[in-house]
Amino acid sequence: MSLTDTKTEKLFGENLKYNQDYYLKHGFTDVRNLISSYMVEHLREINSQTKSNSAFDSFKRNTYNVAIDDEKVQSFIKSPTFSALVQHLGYNDVIFTDGIIFETDASSVGFDWHIGVTSFKYIFPEDRAFSVWIALDDVDPDGQDGGMSLLSTEAFSGSEFYKLQSKVTRSLTEGKYKIP
Question: What pTM does this model have?
Answer without folding.
Answer: 0.71
